[in-house]
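Working notes for the structural subgroup meeting. M.R. asked for a predicted model of this chain before we commit to crystallization trials. I am recording the input and output together here so anyone reviewing the notebook later can reproduce the run.

Input as submitted:
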Amino acid sequence: MKILGIFLIIQGVWSSDLAVEYQSQCAFKGTSVTIPCSYSHPHGNRVTLVTWYRGEPLPGGWAGYTFINSTSMKGHFQYLGDTSGSCTLRINGLLDSDQAGYFVILKTNDKDFTSPHITLTVQDPGITAVVPTVVKERDMVRLICKSKCIGYPPANVVLWSRDGKAVASPTFQAGLDDAGSYQCAWEGLQSNTVTLDVQYLPRNTTVWVEPQGELLKGNSVNLTCSSAANPPVHNYTWWWYSGTAPPPASSMLDLIGTGQVLHLASLVTSQTGYYLCQATNTLGESNSSALLQIKGTTLGRASIFIRSGVVVTVLVALTVLVCFCSRKQPKTKENQHSMATSSPIGRSLNSSTNPDPDSMYANVHMSSLPNRSLTPPQVLNDVHTHDSGQERDFGETDL
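Returned structure, recorded in token form:
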């Protein structure tokens, strides 16, 4: 108890010529830690013994302090100092119980001195990846690996990976390919996984027209707008400009609808014009347009050709049939009788003694031709796509 009494009396009271220098430490459980320690003493004094103590610091004293350089702890604790200025201590195979307060008592030829205590913190091994979870495209990103004990290891000794592949630098400008799961590694330790989400304004906006083909008066058509975006597009807006030339100014555009699909029923020729879709998310907007040309329902040249072809086909078929029947007409009654009994056509033609020429044509039947729908190439011209940021309004869109 003599030593404790001395400690309580002189704690924090130092001669101007005597001092102990050391710092609190943090280390991983199961590893070894070295606590550098040095001291100085007044001229004329000589240090005869340096002793380390461990315990729980309490206001006004200590609880459960022990001599850590005693024989029973040899091997776990190693005193690496001497009696000429060094008081360094090494602790091997750290245990949870090693987390405590530590102080040094210097015994000189004159009196004993007790140093202020330091703290050793013992942590489970581990490091943490500090990664921003959400960034915008082209933002600067800095990846940080944090240790529970030492804080931030030097960046040049930390290894980073994204989705299992090495990352060249922990600092970069975010692109779409940089999205993924990140981990850091240091001195055999692997961190947790942190996901980086790279957001961007709408892009690759496209207008699709269905059905494809020539658009005639009275038909219906669907215009579908698609766009890639993160976060997803939350609003599709449709604008229209009459005419086959791009609008000279955005003020001439008319708002005609919202939603990803624009349905136009019972088309009329006055609906010919540019149809523009504006896709918008929280970061900005992107545009795409398509030109629709609505034609009247008058017969086109193709329809005339088809009808003419049908007439010619029927006339040729009738001519061939008449010639065929004329060649097969019998010259004698015996031949007539023979042909009537052997051919369905012969029996039909000889149903009376003097066949009526009209009855011969009455047996010719023309099967109705199947209806054909013409689908000329789609009239969809001048598809334009424009991307812009939040700071750009619709009026700056080039169509």
